[in-house]
């Protein structure tokens, strides 16, 4: 079992019900699933809890048998460096680093940098001609592909993609998803894709739908 | 991992060199301001000290021969052996120049160029051909002496100071001494003078000491100005660091999201800042040195001086300035960074990635509340505070409270302007200006403090100058002051003066307790000299007539304050003589109380006291002839005669120099504050695109937006200046009326100089306009694609 969630509850300060009201599911190694739901249903919150970017109020989030709940900031940072890779909707590239340096960055941070793998990823993602450019010189689709390459370079065991194609047109989004799916498959990692798009969700083997903080 | 994080942090500076330059420049300028002010202060102090020292040794008691003849070397040695801390002086004229020979190793501190720390090389002063210190024009008249001439602009006119051995040789008076200077601190075990050398007499310190003590007050105020410059620098450092952190906030969030541990990230950023602080601090100290050297008219900047070498005529940057400069840079960085690092540590990992308007997060309500508390504290200390510490706390609370009050006051004014605006563009302008206040607040606070410091310091210096010249006119009204060694010489002086001078004013004095305080009782002759020149802080009508009739006394401010006396109070000035207070006069620099009665009353109270000092009135052209006559006819040495014109000229020339330096320093402080505004505007420019793009899209041209930005800077500077004026005046009042009273027991009157304030306001507007020009020009040239990028969410 790669990922195990049990009765995960998360509430933010202020009026209103819990963002997540007791979510439980499992994900095996190499498995892929799409997480869908309306805006405000708790998709991104759930992804952040799994990625160690936030902590649950109660319940358990466990990756490869390690419970994230008691981990401190350093422990969760170590998880993000080595085990889990997050692809953000807004790319979160480092604007002062070149494309090549951005791709290599997380792998270097985790101590698993392999320049050959960087080259392969850059080629597969169509970035070979842009390695010396800076993010601001790329289009949105290109920036998203750099973010994917950066996440996959250290070969994480679980890839979390938060609306990775949300800012892209349909054709580009299809291309990006195909690449992401192929590359994740090749590494044997698990994938959780958060998306609004029914069309994209349908292209993954498993789908979970969140409604008002609960799995429907 | 450390290397990877460091490389990412460093990459930001590589890609944004302008931000790095502004950070380094901000830190360096703040440090430069501090170290420059310290250097100038130190130079100003030594300049005053040297000036006071070359005025004559009247500030010290002296020993002379009863018969007016020179003292022998043996007598001097005998006195030293008997425990007397005395230093020999010889004086004479060579080529019309007054030559003063000193013994630097025994001379009391502050006497002569060596003791005053005026940059003399004591080895060269004593050995070989020796050195002569004098003004350049004076040295030109002393060629052919074989000694090395050293230019000392602070020296008295037509006076040269040198080692006593060289002076004896130049004056052809081997082994002769004219008088012995008595050090203020004497060993208790010394044998009485009458026993060791009955042919010698000791005379008390002369009146000129008051002038030297007066400058102590000015020193204190210069120190206060140093603190002000520190406060301005601290705000600028704070602004520079805050902006640098804000610019990298999104990157820090990304690094954390990718797994960089928070603790290490914070530690690495702290180390990075420390390195930048050290580099900028070093640059700043060097820059401050150059600025100080450029501002001081007669010192040169040299590499040797930079290492602290004491070279005559060159500004020496002492190790303490290096240390304090670097400490300011590092300390200021640490203080500024601690808040920013704390904010980063608490920054939620998941909040919006977009850069916030960084200062928005600062709690304006907390700032406003702190401002009210500090201003109330300052007012309370002004009313009820006691002691110098309370005075300085009051000053600090006033400054910081005033600075913290700026953002809420600006917001209030801008809100009112917005409410009154009619057109859509003007409404947007005022609203947008209000929105910019938090981002610019630190830079505007620096401008506020710089302007307030300028108003305060220029008011203080100008008030000081007016008071000082008035005081000199009052106290040195007579053209020549002569001290007699004994009654016989006094009689000889009187005989000559009756014939040669227009009027003779005996200076009668007696030390005694008055109103429970040690005081000097003076007897003044009823003469127009006093009536015309003396000014009172408070006086009864017809004060001089009442005094002449022996109906009362005049007291100095120290007596008035310390003894709690007022007009009409009755004081006992002698046995069976209690008189009412008729007037209170300023007596700047005098540490003890003073009471003046008319001459007749004095003589009846103290019949045994005869006048040994006299003020002689004559036309200025006849002063030199009168001096010669007194010298030849009554054996009065040169040092026992004080020419008021020379003293006034020297004192005023020292003031003019201080004036020039403080004016230049004021301009520099403003320039630095202007630079802080430039930094803030440049940093905010990138963050402002999302606010400007919609207005541009709705129909305002980039040029018009740029012009409005320029106008915004001017409006904010003008509003800041409007607040700086009362703050600066309050600062001057605090320095003159609180700190000075606590430190010295007398209050300096405060005068207002509206033209100076207007000029300062103009300079501040100019600084703000210059600072806003470049960002505005860049805005006018912003490619439409960049503005459109705001709408594509691809920035």
List keywords for this structure.
heterodimer; A: 216 residues; alpha/beta; 6-stranded mixed β-sheet; 4-stranded antiparallel β-sheet; 7 helices; 24% strand; globular; B: 795 residues; alpha+beta; 10-stranded mixed β-sheet; 8-stranded mixed β-sheet; 20 strands; 13% strand
Characterize the structure shown.
The complex is a heterodimer of chains A (216) and B (795). Chain A is α/β, with parallel strands linked by helices and 216 residues long. Chain A has helices at 43-50, 73-82, 99-110, 115-124, 140-152, 170-187, 198-201; strands at residues 3-10, 20-27, 32-37, 58-63, 66-67, 84-87, 158-162, 190-194, 206-211, 214-215. The relative contact order of chain A is 0.21. In chain B, a hairpin with a 2-residue loop joins strand 3 and strand 4 (97-102). The longest helix of chain B has 54 residues, at 644-697. Residues 114-119, 206-212, 299-313 and 352-362 of chain B have low confidence and may be disordered. At the A-B interface, helix 2, helix 3 and helix 5 of A face helix 1 and helix 9 of B.
Largest sheet of chain B: 10 strands, mixed
Oligomer designation: heterodimer
The radius of gyration computed from the alpha-carbon positions of chain B, rounded to a whole number of angstroms, is 32 Å
Largest interface: A-B, 33 and 28 residues
The helix count of chain A comes to 7
Helix content of chain B: 55-70%
Low-confidence stretches of chain B: 114-119, 206-212, 299-313, 352-362
Structural class by sheet pairing and helices of chain B: alpha+beta
H-E order of chain A = EEEHEEHEHHHEHEHEE
Strand order of the largest sheet of chain A: 6-7-8-3-9-10
């Amino acid at each position: 079992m790669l990922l195990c969630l049990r009765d995960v509850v998360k509430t933010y300060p202020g009026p209103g019900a819990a963002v997540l009201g007791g979510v439980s599911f499992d994900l095996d190694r190499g498995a892929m699933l799409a997480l869908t739901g309306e805006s405000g249903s708790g998709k991104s919150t759930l992804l952040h809890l799994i990625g160690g970017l936030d902590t649950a109020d109660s319940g358990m989030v466990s990756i490869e048998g390690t419970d994230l709940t008691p981990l401190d900031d350093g422990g969760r940072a170590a998880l993000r460096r080595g085990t889990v890779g997050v692809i953000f909707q807004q790319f979160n590239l480092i604007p002062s680093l070149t494309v090549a340096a951005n791709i290599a960055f997380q792998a270097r941070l985790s101590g698993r940098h392999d320049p050959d793998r960087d080259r392969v990823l850059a080629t597969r993602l169509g970035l070979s001609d842009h390695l010396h450019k800076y993010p601001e010189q790329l289009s949105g689709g290109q920036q998203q592909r750099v973010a994917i390459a950066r996440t996959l370079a250290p070969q994480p065991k679980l890839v979390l993609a938060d609306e990775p194609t949300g800012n892209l047109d349909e054709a580009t989004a299809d291309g990006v998803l195909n690449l992401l799916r192929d590359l994740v498959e090749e590494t044997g990692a698990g994938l959780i894709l958060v998306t609004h798009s029914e069309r994209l969700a349908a292209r993954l083997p498993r789908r979970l739908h969140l409604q008002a903080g609960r799995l429907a | 991992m450390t290397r990877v994080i460091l490389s990412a942090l460093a990459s930001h500076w590589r890609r944004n060199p302008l931000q790095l330059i502004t950070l380094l420049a901000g830190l360096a300028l703040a440090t430069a301001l501090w170290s420059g002010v310290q250097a100038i202060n130190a130079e100003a102090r030594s300049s005053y000290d040297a000036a006071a020292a070359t005025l004559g040794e009247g500030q010290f008691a002296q020993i002379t021969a009863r018969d007016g003849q020179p003292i022998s070397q043996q007598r001097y040695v005998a006195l030293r052996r008997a425990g007397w801390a005395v230093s020999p002086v010889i004086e004479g004229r060579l080529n019309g120049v007054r030559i003063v020979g000193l013994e630097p190793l025994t001379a009391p501190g502050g006497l002569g160029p060596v003791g005053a720390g005026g940059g003399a090389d004591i080895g060269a002063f004593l050995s070989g051909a020796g050195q002569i210190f004098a003004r350049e024009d004076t040295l030109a008249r002393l060629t052919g002496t074989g000694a090395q001439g050293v230019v000392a602009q602070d020296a008295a006119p037509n006076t040269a100071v040198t080692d006593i051995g060289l002076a004896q040789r130049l004056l052809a008076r081997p082994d002769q001494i004219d008088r012995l200077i008595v050090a203020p601190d004497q060993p208790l075990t010394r044998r009485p003078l009458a026993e060791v050398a009955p042919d010698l007499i000791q005379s008390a310190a002369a009146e000129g000491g008051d002038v030297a003590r007066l400058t102590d007050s000015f020193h204190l105020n210069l120190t206060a100005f140093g603190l002000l410059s520190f406060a301005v620098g601290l705000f600028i450092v704070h602004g520079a660091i805050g902006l640098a952190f804000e610019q990298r906030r999104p990157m820090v969030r990304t690094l954390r999201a990718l797994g960089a541990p928070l603790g290490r990230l914070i530690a690495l950023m702290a180390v990075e800042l420390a390195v930048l602080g050290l580099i900028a601090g070093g640059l700043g100290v060097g820059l401050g040195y150059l600025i100080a050297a450029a501002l001081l008219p007669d010192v040169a900047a040299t590499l040797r001086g930079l290492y602290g070498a004491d070279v005559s005529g060159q500004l020496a940057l002492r190790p303490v300035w290096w240390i304090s400069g670097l400490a300011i840079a590092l300390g200021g960085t640490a203080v500024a960074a601690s808040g920013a690092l704390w904010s980063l540590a608490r920054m939620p990992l998941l909040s919006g990635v977009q850069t916030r308007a960084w200062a928005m997060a600062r709690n304006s309500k907390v700032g406003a509340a702190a401002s009210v508390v500090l201003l109330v504290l300052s007012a309370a200390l002004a009313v009820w505070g006691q002691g110098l510490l309370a005075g300085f706390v009051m000053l600090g609370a006033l400054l910081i409270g005033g600075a913290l009050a700026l953002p809420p006051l600006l917001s209030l004014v801008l809100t009112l302007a917005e409410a009154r605006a009619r057109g859509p563009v003007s409404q947007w302008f005022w609203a947008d200006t209000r929105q910019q206040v938090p981002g610019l607040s630190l830079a505007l606070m620096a401008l506020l403090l710089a302007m307030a410091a300028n108003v305060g310091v220029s008011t203080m210096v100008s008030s000081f100058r007016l008071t000082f010249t008035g005081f000199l006119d009052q106290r040195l009204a007579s053209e020549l002051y002569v001290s007699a060694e004994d009654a016989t010489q006094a009689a000889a002086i009187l005989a000559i003066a009756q014939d040669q001078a227009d009027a003779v004013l005996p200076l009668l004095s007696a030390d005694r307790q008055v109103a429970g305080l040690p005081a000097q009782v003076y007897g003044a002759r009823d003469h127009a000299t006093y009536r015309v020149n003396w000014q009172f802080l408070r006086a009864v009508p017809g004060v001089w007539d009442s005094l002449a009739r022996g109906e009362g006394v005049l007291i100095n401010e120290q007596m008035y304050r310390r003894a709690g006396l007022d007009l009409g109070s009755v004081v006992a000035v002698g046995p069976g003589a209690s008189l009412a207070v008729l007037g209170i006069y300023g007596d700047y620099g005098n540490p003890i109380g003073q009471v003046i009665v008319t001459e007749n009353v004095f003589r009846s109270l103290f019949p045994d006291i005869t006048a040994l000092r006299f003020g002689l009135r004559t036309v200025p052209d006849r002063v030199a002839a009168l001096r010669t006559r007194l010298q030849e006819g009554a054996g009065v040495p040169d040092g026992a005669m004080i020419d008021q014109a020379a003293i006034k000229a020297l004192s005023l020339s020292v003031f003019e120099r201080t004036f020039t330096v403080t004016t230049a320093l004021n301009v520099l402080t403003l320039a630095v504050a202007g630079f802080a505004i430039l930094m803030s505007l440049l940093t905010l420019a990138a963050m402002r695109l999302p606010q400007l793009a919609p207005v541009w899209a709705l129909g305002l041209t980039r040029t018009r937006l740029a012009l409005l930005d320029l106008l915004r800077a001017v409006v904010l500077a003008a509003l800041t200046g409007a607040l700086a004026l009362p703050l600066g005046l309050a600062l001057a009042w605090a320095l003159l009326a609180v700190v000075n009273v606590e430190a010295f027991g007398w209050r300096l009157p405060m005068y207002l100089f509206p033209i100076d304030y207007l000029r300062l306001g103009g300079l501040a507007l100019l600084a703000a306009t210059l600072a806003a020009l470049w960002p505005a020009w860049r805005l006018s040239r912003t490619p439409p694609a960049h503005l459109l990028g705001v709408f594509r969410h691809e920035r």
